[in-house]
Amino acid sequence: MSEKGKARRAAYEERQERKAKKIVNWIFVVLVLLAICFIAYTFTIVQ
């Protein structure tokens, strides 16, 4: 494989890794928000 192809592949893999980390962070944030909503909902049901 040429040097240009290797560089392009490395850049692509780097972009994919950054996107994957961003998606994992968003999923974590959404889960935390859902947990907070569930706790608030549970407290309103109990009272």
Task: Give a verbal description of the structure.
The structure is a single chain. This protein is mainly α. It has one helix spanning 3-46.
What's the gist of this structure?
The protein is mainly alpha-helical and 47 residues long. It has one helix at residues 3-46.
List keywords for this structure.
mainly alpha; 47 residues; 1 helix; single chain
Low-confidence stretches: none
Distance between the termini: 67 Å
Quaternary arrangement of the chains shown? Answer: single chain
Q: Tell me the β content.
A: under 5%
- Going by helix content, strand content and strand pairing, the class is mainly alpha
C-alpha Rg, in Å?
A: 20 Å
Main pleated-sheet profile:
none
Shape: rod-shaped
Helix run count: 1
Number of strands: 0
Order of secondary-structure elements: H
Write down the overall mean pLDDT.
94
**Percentage of residues in helical conformation:** over 70%
Chain-wise SSE layout:
Elements: H1 3-46
